[in-house]
Amino acid sequence: MSSPKGVLPQLDTFSDALERYADWGWLVLRSENRLLLTTDHQVSAVEMAAGIGGEVQHYLSVRMLAGPVVVLPGRWLFLTESADEASQVNLIRLRARGALTHRLGTLVPLPPSRIDRAVVRWSGNGPAQRPFLPPFSAVVAALRAVTETAGLR
After folding, report:
1. For 103-142, what is the HEC assignment?
2. How far is residue 63's CA from residue 44's CA, in Å, rounded to a whole number?
3. What are the tens digits of pLDDT across the range 54-87?
4. Helix, strand, coil share of the chain (percent; to 5)
5. pTM listed for this prediction
6. DSSP H/E element including 56
7. Are residues 131 and 78 in contact, defined by beta-carbon separation less than 8 angstroms?
8. Is 89 strand, coil or helix?
């Protein structure tokens, strides 16, 4: 009995991704059709609307501070160094600009998860080796810079 077209490669992709994430030292849980990164003392995530996310990624890229970005339907997740020690003012600045901070113990989806009938993917090709994680403060500064330029103080 053969499997439907595409099923086995998807399973292989999940297995490969789990192994790669484990090699990077990330705690990733598998839940049905999702791989979920557990944010911890090494990695946090900043979630924002996709449109502004593209501007933030460009801002970070120009300054050689771009790190991995997970693309969700309508949202981007910027993976950063831990935000556990972030000042309250930075968290408030992000929230005021429509961004969410996922810190210690939060679960966030990683590629190749499926949510809302869409595949979670990396922006660009995604990291082939353990990625550089930008400082949390760099993402805060980038979001602040691009929104102030747009008049969203």
Report:
1. CCCCEEEECCCEECCEECEECCCCCCCCCCCCCHHHHHHH
2. 20
3. 999 999 999 999 999 999 999 999 999 999 999 9
4. 35, 25, 40
5. 0.88
6. helix 50-62
7. no
8. helix
